[in-house]
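Quick one: structure for this chain?
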Amino acid sequence: QVQLVESGGGLVQPGGSLRLSCAASGNIFSTYTMGWYRQAPGKPREFVARITSGFSTNHADSVKGRFTISRDNAKNTVSLQMNSLKPEDTAVYYCNAQRATVSYWGQGTQVTVSS
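Got it. Here's what it folds into:
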């Protein structure tokens, strides 16, 4: 089983930046596809970005050019650099680990973009 712990959320003004981090347990971290999802109140959880075990990345259209996902297998971490933040980015951000049919989730970290 994999445990995931997110950090780095907080309050930021529109146009600002935040860097989210996710620390994962286990010694097979490098075999998982890692991702970030977010959920605003009353809305379904939505995909933000993912990075495969081969370091291939994919970002949702809503964040392309602004967010960048990365991973450090030596440290068992995945990060999400968020630039040019908008109020509509406000949500709880969740870290995800996926391999075959199994999926693990972190507890989430709140990101609030407001003046």
